[in-house]
Amino acid sequence: MGYKIYKEAPPVILEFLNYIENIKGRSSLTAEEYYRDLRTFFRFIIKDRGLIDKDIPVDEIDISCVDLKMVKSVTFSEILLFLNYCKDERNNASTTRARKTTSLKDFFNYLTVKTNKLSYNPTEQLEAPKTKKSLPKYLTLEDSLRLLEAVDGEFKERDYCILVFFLNCGLRLSELVGINLSDINSEYVIKIRGKGNKERILTLNPACVRALNEYLKVRPVDGITDKNALFISRKNCRITSKGVYHMVNHYLEKIGLGNQGYSPHKLRHTAATLMYQKGGVDIRTLQVILGHSNLGTTQIYTHVANEQVTKGLNANPLANVK
């Protein structure tokens, strides 16, 4: 591991993060999420127990003092207080609090069941906050075409290729920035590394092939720090998630859709929705394309279609006849 973010992580947490990443096969980004949640929790514990000067802000508390003895002393009541703190003082949404609950449950379960370092699991009876299931936000077919038509500037071939990949392949942001030249063969079959480092194979469609070939004609070659990276930034290194986010937002603003909740992940939703509704792709094929391990995750796109059917029926002038 050895990421800068873990510089103050105590051994008891580092051991768990190594288990998550190396044994469970979760991605480094997932391990970082676990660490941030655990760091926030133990900062709260240190502050709440008065183990540090009360004037020190919670987000500046060093957790390197956390050891197995402190972990063993955590109570169910303290965990509930922490989740209330997240809701009332940190304004965490129910989805964020649910993720923190999962992080805590997995951490204490590891120490109780996997390593037997704890005899009592304070999260055993802990329930995750109920989360509101919302339908995915996505662009219409017309908006998608306008977005592609808006591409211009010095990096237009790269930007266009990125948008085409999002809208046609339904990639996650992390998947897109992680694509290497060596992941694409001469038949335009591409290897995608998804969540938990799980790989899936996709064959690029004609739009993706055309966009890719146009980009490769102008892709920088000299002075590249990561020569295998497909998408290169203006600094001649692999483009970052932040860079892609700003690029996508720039073009959304150009077509009048800025600050409306759209993002690279919403382009993934757009691809899935268009494939299901307009392309007639069945739900199990869509599951494979998107890299969902659970079919239930993919089925949200059937709900989108069902909602539109309901709206259509309700729009009938005879809908309210008596």
Strand order of the largest sheet: 1-2
Shape: globular
C-alpha end-to-end distance = 67 Å
**Structural class, judged by helices and strands?**
mainly alpha
**Which consecutive residue ranges, at least 5 long each, have pLDDT under 50?**
none
Largest sheet: 2 strands, antiparallel
Helix content: 40-55%
Beta-strand residue fraction: under 5%
Short note summarizing the structure:
The protein has helices at 11-23, 28-48, 68-73, 76-88, 94-114, 141-149, 156-169, 173-177, 206-218, 241-254, 264-277, 283-290, 295-298, 300-314; strands spanning 189-193, 199-203.
Write the layout of secondary structure elements.
Elements: H1 11-23, H2 28-48, H3 68-73, H4 76-88, H5 94-114, H6 141-149, H7 156-169, H8 173-177, E1 189-193, E2 199-203, H9 206-218, H10 241-254, H11 264-277, H12 283-290, H13 295-298, H14 300-314
Antiparallel strand pairs: 1-2
Helix pairs in contact: 1-2, 2-5, 7-9, 7-11, 11-14
How would you characterize this protein structure?
This protein is mostly helical. It has helices at 11-23, 28-48, 68-73, 76-88, 94-114, 141-149, 156-169, 173-177, 206-218, 241-254, 264-277, 283-290, 295-298, 300-314; strands at residues 189-193, 199-203. A two-stranded antiparallel sheet has the order 1-2. Helix 1 (11-23) runs antiparallel to helix 2 and helix 11 (264-277) packs across helix 14 (300-314). The longest helix is centred in the first third of the chain and has 21 residues, at 28-48. It is globular. It starts with 10 loop residues before the first helix and ends in an 8-residue tail after the last helix.
